[in-house]
Amino acid sequence: MKRILLEVFLAASLIAAGVFGWMNWNAGKANVAKLTELTAESESSVKKLLSAETEVKANAEELSTLKLKTQELDAVKAALASGETLKDLEAAYKKEKSLSAERLVGLGALRLLTKGSQDPATIEAFRKALVIADWGSRKKVICAAQIALAAAGEKVEVLGDCIPQADKAEQADKEKVGGSDKAANVDKGKDEHGAKPGEKHAVHWGYEGAMGPDRWGDEFPTCAKGKSQSPLNIKGPFEKAQFGVAPDYKPGQLKIINNGHTIQVNVPPGSKLRIDSKPFELLQFHFHRPSEEQIDGKPAAMVVHFVHKNEAGRLAVLGVLLKEGNENPGIKTLWANAPLTEGPEVEPDGVMFNPANLLPREYEFYSYEGSLTTPPCTEGVRFFILKAQVNITKEQVEQFPFKKNARPVQAQNGRAIAG
Ligand SMILES: [Zn+2]
Fold it and tell me: 151 and 214: one domain?
């Protein structure tokens, strides 16, 4: 538990950037000085806590030091407890068009300090950070958020890469006993998420050569060792589908990003996919060229993946294959606004988009249990690939700024395909 606490406060150190940015913006406000003081205080507490940990490792007698540091932390907590400063900070954050994953984690950490781990908004901040963080460039943020959520008793599996070395043995023991939550909801919506412009990726991966799919397993073991990986070559025999899917997508302000791996549209809340009548929130959709899925060994020109998550954190991807034919008006709007090179999310003024514009009329599907198709290739993702395809012109395919961004089909390993 101590270790978890320390890891959470690693995340707290990320607050600093956010808070200082906010202070510049809000320079006139009277409580700035107070906030500065508190931030510095919490930062130094974090540092002290971390150094305390080293001491504890070296000498068990130093436990009393840690106790003292914990008391200091409690003092910071008490100082922030009124919630006024936090409210101000949140209001400032909300005014921004989009929050970075770091700021959300910082906000979550501040909330953790003031409101505790059971506060829904605390949990939401960490969850949101997970959703918008790109694995490659945001590993630290993702780990911080996962660890914080796990500490708050949320059903989140902390990825192996995030578990501090010392705790891994303990974790392995737990799994042997079979008591751990083998939650399928490991990393929400991290499939092709936005990387910050100009920022160096901590981990590189791509679709060709030394960074290509056959090397992903070097850094992300599940990509190589997983037994339920996506995409699949979809071929019979099929099992009968036991339920239906019904998209209920709504128009909203277009938010579109070129994250270096794909073009992705981040969807404002309110669009849902009902699977067997149960709602899954649409988080984002993105494209692959050619389609990752194959039907009887053949890919389509492209595919759009709609990524959804339910309240329990389960991921579901709805795939719509795009075949060469007439012009697709929805794609026309998207391509007209999509950045050609990697960069930040853009929100073109007054451009609304309804994801339903990319759907066919019929929702019959093939379905199977799969994984994210990008590192870390996390499993427990349900795929629904619609049988009906939609048109896109050859020119529109060629305008897509990625020549090839499709993972090859993976071994089926006895998985049933409904269809
Ligand atoms: Zn995808």
Answer: no
What is the distance between the alpha carbons of residues 176 and 257, in angstroms, rounded to a whole number?
42
The secondary structure of 167-186 as a DSSP string is HHHHHHHHHHHT-S---S-S
Specify the pLDDT at position 297: 97
User: Apex CA 375: angle with CA 225 and CA 313, to 5°?
Assistant: 95
Q: Are residues 141 and 105 in contact, defined by beta-carbon separation less than 8 angstroms?
A: yes
Q: Are residues 173 and 221 in the same domain?
A: no
Within a domain: residue 140?
Answer: yes
Ligand 1 center to residue 308 CA distance, Å? 12
Q: Which of 193, 201, 261, 308 is catalytic?
A: 261
**Strand runs labelled E in 174-314:** 233-234, 245-248, 252-253, 256-258, 263-266, 272-275, 278-288, 294-295, 298-299, 302-309
Distance CA 107, CA 148 (A): 12
Distance of CA 363 from the midpoint of ligand 1 (Å): 19
Do 105 and 227 lie in one domain? The reply is no
Q: Is 204 a catalytic residue?
A: no
Per residue in 205-257, pLDDT (tens digit) is: 999 999 999 999 998 999 999 999 999 999 999 999 999 999 999 999 999 99
Domains: count for the chain = 2
